[in-house]
Amino acid sequence: xxxxxxxxxxxxxxxxxxxxxxxxxxxxxxxxxxxxxxxxxxxxxxxxxxxxxxxxxxxxxxxxxxxxxxxxxxxxxxxxxxxxxxxxxxxxxxxxxxxxxxxxxxxxxxxxxxxxxxxxxxxxxxxxxxxxxxxxxxxxxxxxxxxxxxxxxxxxxxxxxxxxxxxxxxxxxxxxxxxxxxxxxxxxxxxxxxxxxxxxxxxxxxxxxxxxxxxxxxxxxxxxxxxxxxxxxxxxxxxxxxxxxxxxxxxxxxxxxxxxxxxxxxxxxxxxxxxxxxxxx
Length: 281
Description:
Blueprint: H1 30-44, H2 51-58, H3 62-65, H4 72-84, H5 98-115, H6 119-123, H7 131-145, H8 154-181, H9 186-199, H10 201-209, H11 211-217, H12 222-261, H13 268-275
Helix pairs in contact: 1-4, 4-7, 5-8, 7-8, 8-9, 8-12, 12-13
């Protein structure tokens, strides 16, 4: 049996290109199997998914599915990359448009996580080196490269934005699942939970203390509240990137001025790079 620690990726093991073993059952292909997997995961969730359940959905035997994938993990990894293909990526990345493009891609990623609540656990499980995942990562990197941030700060900026989106979209998606399981709309579930918290002695005082926050939050529905929170939080991150770019520019100018006074001094370029790095005083 292959240990999880020994597993790399279905995309790195040469299992995807051929489309299946020789003599595979007719009427099936890896694309059809992957699409059925996504439908089942959307309808029933990750915990209930099994190869046997998938085979029943496809009206074939479980062994028929194994002609196309070796393991359940291989299939989940294919499904993970498949839904990344739903993201609409920019045709071209233009320096003056990084704010709009970053907001659009962050918003699309949020919706993807909400639409497929099973996605977030898999993101942290697999390497995410399928073609759609790599295209998404490449677009993110290209957009952040046009911001003016020093190269040393790019991965930090990517983490700040997209790990925020990951967390926001994950919680939002899970709320949708809990609401459905309770037989309520999200609005009903939220109001029911807030009423319970407000009335419980252990938490009522905290609710009172934060009444001004809820009032200032605005929005007539839970969706409007979340949209406002997401937009404001993303604006904070964009403003942070702008501030870091400005800080880097100031540091670079200071370094250039120092270089003029001591022209030709060894190590001047290195000092300038350090001064321009985000987070340095």
